[in-house]
Structure formats: C-alpha cells, structure tokens
C-alpha cells in the first residue's frame, strides 16, 4: 500500500522509487502484484505518463485511511508498551492526599499526559483486597501489614505534628514535648483501621506509661482538624496535614521519647509488570528520594 500511495502521489515510477529508497523495477513488480491480487487496474501507464484509473483513485483514498489506521495502532501499541498511555487506578487514604500524592500526580502527568488516572479513597484492608481483585493498580497507606502477594515500598518518612487550638497556651511554642500534654483531651484517627495512626499514637503515650484521654475517634484527618478548630482537643497528625489550613488551628513540631514520625508506603501486586505501573513507580521513587520530609528531632532532651 505504501508503494502504491507513493506512485499515486508522484505519478512517476522513478520519483516514487527514489522516495521509497528502492529500485524502479522492484517498485513496478510490487504494483503489478497488487493489481493482480485485487484484481483491478489501478494505474494507466505508458512511456509518457502515469495516471490513476477510477479504481486506482478509490483504492488510493482507502489506502490512505488504512495506512493512517495502521500508524495509529502502532502509535497506540508503542505508547501502551512504554507505559505512556492507558489507565491507572490509585487507592488513597489519610493525609497523603494533602501533600505527596498531588505532587506525584503532577510530575507523572507532565511526562505521561495520555494516562487516565482515577483516585479512590480506601483504607488499607480495602486497598489490599482491591489489589488482589485487580480493581486497583497501586495504593498509598501507612503502617501496612506484610502480605505474601502484595509488594510494598517505603515512600517517605514524615514527622508527626501536634494540631492544637490557636488559643491554647502552648500554641506560642515552636515545638511541644508529648509529656507536657499527656492529660489533655485528644482526638484520634483513623477509627476502625488496624495498625493505624491511633495505634502509633498510643505507643508514643505508652513510653510515658500513659494512655491518651480520647474525647473523639474519627475516620479522617479533615474531621479531626475541624474538631481541633472547635476546641474539642488536640490531635497528632503527619506533617503533610499542615496543608489543611482551618481557622483556629495551629500545628507545632512534636517531641517525644519515641520516634515522632510515621511512614508512607505504596503497595501493589507482586509480579505486576504493567508498563504504566512501572513508569508511575519511577516517578514515586524519584519524588520520594528528592522531597521526603525530614523527620523532626523527636527525642526528649536529657
């Protein structure tokens, strides 16, 4: 078809052969075989001129369409093979949507604009199940349990912060030691999630032989910060939460006897060789190494 299109556009076998980087006799044989295969006379030719027949004109238009479709199919296949086209379904949870994930999506979107991305809020158990059922490409969560069929990678470590009402006496400080607020009312999240931030906070209190005085347990960071703004209590949150600015809330660095930090991990199916997933993971790893939030000094001063 490409040979025929070249002749139809040049109306000269010699020029068409030069355009195709083949010899003129080889080109003539290809056109003859094409006409025999159809069968129809596509070109009128003599020693003086080459012209398209009516059948040749119709075939020329169809050939252009077919070659364009073939090129489109090749381009689509190449983009899919390179992970530059297709779809990516991402599970999200907690405060990471306030900071790290938007930056990953922005960076990935610049290099892979043809990939369609959908985000689905899910806790870690739901993410693991969705990965197993292939309803999810990748998930982001914290304190993810080890699963034999799920790969997980550390994305970054975040310092823990203390969210407190703006009028609280300790809001004037640059940092607050956990031992100073052991008796304060606390709002914990997320409720009902195994090995969640609540469990981590209770461990930090246990280092002081104390338990938090919980006044509310909520399921998401936005609700917890809204309750802090209402003066109902304090809340320990990852540093990315500081991007959630509500009137009446201040965030301060938290110091404690244990590690005042928490990990963010991405999780995906083991053995998943999807080019899009691999390209997305490259972006996650690059951004994670460049922009990981350094953990604050979390040791109690001696």
TrEMBL record:
Residues 1-53 form the HTH lysR-type domain. GO terms for molecular function: DNA binding; DNA-binding transcription factor activity. Pfam families: HTH_1, LysR_substrate. The keyword Transcription regulation applies. InterPro entries: LysR_HTH_N (IPR000847), LysR_subst-bd (IPR005119), WH-like_DNA-bd_sf (IPR036388), WH_DNA-bd_sf (IPR036390). Gene3D superfamilies: Periplasmic binding protein-like II (3.40.190.10), Winged helix-like DNA-binding domain superfamily/Winged helix DNA-binding domain (1.10.10.10). It comes from the Bacteria. CDD domains: PBP2_Chlorocatechol. Keywords: DNA-binding, Transcription, Transcription regulation. This is DNA-binding transcriptional LysR family regulator. It comes from Azotobacter chroococcum. The lineage of its organism: Bacteria, Pseudomonadati, Pseudomonadota, Gammaproteobacteria, Pseudomonadales.
């Amino acid at each position: 078809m490409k040979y025929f299109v070249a002749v139809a556009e040049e109306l000269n076998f010699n020029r068409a052969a030069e355009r195709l980087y083949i010899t003129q006799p080889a080109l003539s044989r290809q056109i003859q075989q094409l006409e025999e295969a159809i069968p129809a006379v596509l070109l009128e030719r003599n020693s003086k001129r080459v012209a398209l027949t009516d059948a040749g004109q119709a075939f020329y238009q169809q050939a252009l369409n077919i070659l364009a479709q073939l090129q489109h199919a090749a381009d689509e296949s190449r983009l899919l093979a390179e992970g530059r086209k297709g779809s990516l379904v991402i599970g999200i949870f907690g405060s990471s949507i306030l900071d790290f994930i938007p930056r990953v999506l922005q960076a990935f979107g610049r290099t892979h604009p043809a990939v369609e991305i959908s985000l689905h809020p899910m806790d870690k158990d739901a993410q693991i199940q969705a990965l197993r059922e292939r309803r999810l490409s990748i998930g982001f969560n914290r304190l993810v349990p080890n699963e034999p069929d799920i790969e997980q990678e550390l994305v970054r470590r975040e310092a823990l912060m203390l969210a407190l009402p703006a009028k609280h006496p300790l809001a004037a400080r640059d940092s607050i030691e956990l031992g100073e607020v052991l008796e304060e009312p606390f709002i914990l999240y997320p409720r009902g999630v195994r090995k969640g931030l609540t469990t981590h906070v209770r461990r930090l209190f246990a280092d002081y032989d104390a338990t938090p005085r919980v006044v509310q347990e909520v399921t998401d960071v936005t609700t917890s910060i809204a309750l802090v703004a209402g003066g109902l209590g304090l809340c320990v949150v990852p540093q990315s939460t500081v991007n959630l600015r509500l009137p009446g809330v201040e965030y301060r660095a938290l110091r404690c006897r244990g590690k005042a930090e928490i990990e963010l991990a991405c999780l995906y199916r083991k053995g998943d060789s999807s080019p899009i997933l691999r390209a997305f993971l490259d972006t996650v790893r690059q951004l994670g190494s460049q922009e990981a939030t350094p953990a604050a000094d979390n040791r109690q001063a001696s």
